[in-house]
Design brief:
Strand content: under 5%
Distance between the termini: 54 Å
Largest sheet: none
Shape: globular
Protein name: Cytochrome b/b6 domain-containing protein
Membrane topology: Multi-pass membrane protein
Organism: Acinetobacter seifertii
Radius of gyration: 19 Å
Subcellular location: Cell membrane
InterPro entries: Cyt_b561_bac/Ni-Hgenase, Di-haem_cyt_TM
Number of helices: 8
């Protein structure tokens, strides 16, 4: 019998939390010149985190007990859920609880896909603004605000899905466990040390 792999492990949960903190920190320090170095640090942490997430997507099924969802999987989930929500024959059923829940699930998955894509774009534009031309600042701000809009969609659909399901849907991303394989726990520790070390030395530069 083949073993069913989870799509979430402790490393993915930690990266999710780091990405949330880094984006929040980057967004609220963006217009403060005194905290410009901190803003840049958060941006680089976002890029480091998403890079590790991509690497872990391909590595974890081979060395761990998880098989994380990727962009292709989540895009398919989003498309199918939204398609099903509009597949009903009349307007009454379109606005039914089931249809609203399917549409909300679709938007939730779609927001993850676009957030995943936008992170390197926002960071690259921030780097370009800092090191090449200040004229990229407006473009950087536009994509940062688009990022914020996607985060709002993500959180809003999470809340709506939780209300409709009558249980908090985000618990799986917050519930920490050491039940994963040792390699996963060691990788999580490595990532925490890497992010912590990078932050310390970057701010000390």
């Amino acid at each position: 019998m083949s073993k069913t792999l989870s799509h979430i492990d402790i490393l993915i949960r930690i990266l999710h939390i780091i990405i949330m903190i880094a984006f929040t920190g980057a967004y609220f320090t963006g217009d403060n010149e005194d905290l410009h170095q901190v803003h840049m640090m958060f941006g680089y942490i976002l890029l480091i985190s998403i890079t590790i997430r991509v690497i872990w997507h391909f590595l974890s099924p081979r060395v761990s007990n998880s098989a994380p969802f990727g962009i292709k999987k989540r895009s398919s989930m989003a498309f199918n859920a939204i398609k099903k929500s509009f597949s009903h024959a009349n307007s009454a059923s379109i606005f039914s609880k089931n249809s609203i829940q399917l549409f909300s699930i679709g938007l939730f998955q779609a927001s993850i896909v676009f957030i995943f894509i936008l992170i390197p774009v926002v960071v690259a534009l921030g780097y370009g603004t800092e090191h090449f031309t200040y004229s990229l600042r407006d473009l950087h701000s536009f994509f940062a605000n688009l990022f914020l809009a996607l985060v709002i969609v993500h959180l809003s659909t999470l809340v709506l899905n939780s209300i409709l399901a009558k249980r908090f849907q985000g618990w799986t991303m917050l519930k920490m466990t050491l039940a994963d394989k040792k390699i996963t726990n060691y990788m999580t520790l490595f990532v925490l040390v890497l992010i912590g070390g990078f932050s310390y030395f970057y701010l000390g530069m």
